[in-house]
Design a protein that fits this description.
binds beta-D-glucopyranose; alpha/beta; 754 residues
């Protein structure tokens, strides 16, 4: 397809024409790319990647930190379809999102753009957005590939991560998005991964992404992520953005002429860009007319599904016909709906909390006081007094607390997760005069809630909700909506408790991921630490009962069924979470890892079965010895619950080993052989009690057995005083390996727990 193109033309296909567009070359049309992820930020005047200059109005859907709390891929897909329509109307062909990086640390300034601390939910929801966008003919661009988990020093720092952690946590969300969503493009991150810039990392872009996962789309660089275009193209990058005014095209042409990059590599790059241009060009519908009202209604619906009721002591919510309501806090007058930086959209309209509260409670007298200011300045004593006064003379106080866009943004990280002290002081004074106080939270990243939770009887957590957030909040407060959102990240007690507390900041250009796979709830659960609110937590105005958890093994993995009953008197939605654990494992594991989830809507008294398939690879671990996903043989515990700390039912199932196994050698320890079912039998047959090899007195001695467990088999000959030779040990190893090879072909695992 490239035969008619010159080297220069091919090279020029792979770099921007402007800040947001690619070049039209011959018959290949140019492409318009823009942010993303939760609204179309199309700039028609000055361009920038920081959200500074104006963009055309677009629906601001809940950013990922809010939307993820719906746990609802179907809803997320519909949001993707609406985004596609708006992109079509704006003649945009690629929408830069979703963001599927893992929230490694709550201080990351950009956590509001990401879904979760858990790779499964990030991957499933990310794939749902991709499908929605691409159903509408607009290419998605999952970002930022990979391990871009901090903002400070993001252009230079190397995320130093061991192979197992990379695969099981940081690459896993991308793997799912690529394999389930089949995005037409993917964005390479700014940072380095194990020393090599992501946009120039051949292992990442070619070996893993294309070779292992089968990605067939275009890899686009994050804006100005490329430091060396020639290295980037050689590594598998297709499109450098934004424009370099032809500079890097000339470098690439020279590299091809000098034989540094093969012409076939350039051809592949050009072909992929051409294919994208034709694909999105063929799907262009610039005459699309967007129904702004319908999209606003969808934004409201998405916001309502994303609200998390964290606490509701004494059933204070929903509010029942209060006569006097005090609304306190600047966000009560103007809700913050999104985060700062490149994702910042100009909303088509924004619901106002005070108006929505008045709508939802027309009978009530509603008073407002700011109580505090988002700006630092002199202590607002007078404002606090006014707020306390209106709280005291009302039936209920609704106190809006949270962070401003300045507190958290793309481009820099937070130093703290605390709410400003003045907000806590205000809350304490309000609660002292008004025990019926409801806190409504607005924030992108996690905030410390220990003090808020100790003070307030009810907490409604909005995270960031987009332009329909205020009406969604009012509907939940007054019971028109039964809340069903669940946390997608843990609320820790203190920043000092968090897994990367001591290693979040880059040191000499390196970010050391020393906590390994123990990110989020995996860490708090493994260390049995108290948390303020666990991963997956969220209350409803009704209650749900779990019964009859069943497990069965099927070809693709494990099928789980559980019956959920709405035991209350209101219709409601439960988010059913399924976790897996394996106590006896060759590797350090979290007590529970999320392996599936589902939402179910239930009328009062109704029972429904929820059925999910857990894919085999979701119970596997990444075995660094064979560079592959491996299911260990063992007794797995599958559980169903309402949070990682609210497990309602569990069943056990014995699964057989799957995947390549590491052959035993004379360097394998006796303990390793004994922990293998075949190894244990062969050892017993050949040697009886292995400790007897060390002498009669040693036989059966527990201390000797433990010492022996750590002894490489080949060394036993040296201690055995002729009772066993190295040759005999070598034969034993051969027998174990050959028996295992045969049994691996015939093994069936044994389902239990029915
Ligand atoms: C951000 C990307 C964004 C791009 C274009 C970069 O600074 O990291 O997420 O898509 O700018 O605005």
């Amino acid at each position: 397809m490239n035969d008619d193109l010159t080297l220069e033309q091919k090279a020029s296909l792979g770099s921007g024409a402007t800040f947001w567009t690619t070049k039209a070359v011959g018959s290949v049309p140019g492409i318009f790319l823009t942010d993303g992820p939760h609204g179309v930020r199309k700039q028609v005047g000055s361009a920038d990647a920081l959200g500074l200059n104006a963009s055309i109005p677009a629906t601001c859907f809940p950013p990922a930190s809010g939307l993820s709390r719906s746990w609802d891929p179907e809803l997320v897909r519909r949001v993707g379809e609406a985004l596609a329509e708006e992109a079509q109307a704006a003649d945009v062909q690629v929408l830069l999102g979703p963001g599927v990086n893992i929230k490694r640390d709550p201080r990351c300034g950009r956590n509001f753009e990401y879904f979760s601390e858990d790779p499964l939910i990030s991957g499933v929801l990310g794939a749902a957005i991709v499908r929605g966008l691409q159903n509408g003919g607009v290419a998605a661009s999952p970002k930022h590939f990979a391990a871009n988990n901090a903002e400070d020093d993001r252009f230079r720092a190397s995320s130093d991560i061991d192979a197992r952690t990379l695969r099981e946590i940081y690459l896993k969300s991308f793997q799912r998005v690529v394999q389930d969503g089949e995005p037409w493009t993917l964005m390479a991150a700014y940072n380095k991964v194990n020393g090599v810039h992501a946009a120039e990392n051949r292992w990442l872009l070619t070996d893993v992404l294309r070779g292992e996962w089968g990605f067939e789309g275009v890899v686009v660089s994050d804006w100005a992520a490329v430091t060396d275009r020639v290295a980037a193209v050689a590594a598998g990058l297709d499109l450098e953005m934004p424009s370099t005014d032809g500079r890097s095209d000339s470098e690439l042409v020279a590299a091809v002429q000098d034989g540094i990059v093969g012409e076939d590599t350039l051809d592949l790059m050009a072909e992929r860009v051409i294919r994208l241009a034709e694909r999105v060009g063929g799907a262009r519908r610039p005459d699309t007319v967007v129904d702004d009202e319908a999209h606003h209604a969808l934004a409201r619906q998405a916001a309502a599904a994303s609200l998390v009721l964290l606490k509701n002591d004494g059933g204070i919510l929903p509010l029942e016909a209060p006569e006097r309501i005090a609304v306190i806090g600047p966000f009560g007058a103007e809700l913050r709906i999104q985060g700062g930086g490149s994702s910042h959209v100009t909303p088509t309209r924004v619901d106002v909390p005070m108006d929505e509260i008045r709508r939802a409670a027309p009978q009530a007298a509603v008073e407002f006081a700011t109580g505090f200011s988002m700006d630092e300045g002199p202590d607002p004593v007078g404002e606090r007094r006014d707020a306390v006064d209106i709280a005291a003379r009302s039936d209920v106080a609704i106190v809006f607390l949270g962070l401003s866009e300045r507190d958290e943004s793309e481009g820099y990280d937070r130093d703290t997760i605390d709410l400003p002290a003045r907000q806590l002081q205000l809350l304490a004074e309000v609660v002292a005069v008004q025990p019926r106080t409801v806190v409504v939270l607005t924030h992108g990243g996690v905030v410390r809630l220990r003090e808020v939770s100790a003070l307030a009887p009810a907490i409604l957590d909005g995270a960031l909700l987009g332009q329909g957030g205020a009406s969604a909040i009012a509907d939940v407060l007054f019971g028109m909506t039964n809340p069903s959102g669940r946390l997608t990240e843990t609320v820790p007690e203190r920043i000092e408790d968090t897994p990367a507390y001591l290693s979040f900041v880059s040191e000499s250009g390196h970010l050391h991921y020393g906590e390994r796979i123990f990110v989020g709830y995996r860490w708090y659960d493994a260390r049995d630490m108290p948390v303020t609110f666990p991963f997956g937590h969220g209350l409803s105005y009704t209650t749900f009962e779990y019964s009859r958890l069943r497990v069965s093994e099927v070809e693709e993995g494990v099928r789980l069924h559980v019956a959920i009953t709405n035991a209350g008197d209101r219709a409601g939605r439960e988010v059913v979470q399924f976790y897996v654990g394996l106590a006896e494992s060759a590797v350090a594991r979290a007590p529970r890892s999320l392996v599936q989830f589902a939402v179910t809507d239930l009328q009062p008294g109704e029972t429904r079965w929820v059925e999910v398939l857990v894919r085999r690879e979701d119970v596997a671990f990444w075995d660094v010895r064979v560079d592959a996903w491996v299911v260990e043989a063992g007794r797995y515990v599958f559980s169903a619950g309402a949070s990682s700390r609210d497990i309602r039912l569990a069943v056990e199932v014995d699964l057989a080993a799957r995947g390549p196994s590491v052959p035993f050698t004379l360097d394998s320890t006796i303990g390793e052989l004994l922990s293998d079912p075949v190894g244990a039998v062969v050892l017993e047959q050949r040697m009886g009690d292995a400790s007897a090899m060390l002498g009669e007195d040693a036989a059966g001695d527990p201390g000797t057995s433990r010492m022996l467990a750590a002894l490489p088999l080949g060394r036993l000959a040296a201690f055995a005083a002729g009772r066993v030779t190295r040759e005999q040990l070598g034969q034993l190893v051969d027998v174990v390996n050959s028996t295992k090879a045969v049994s691996n072909r015939t093994d069936e695992s044994v389902p239990r727990g029915e």
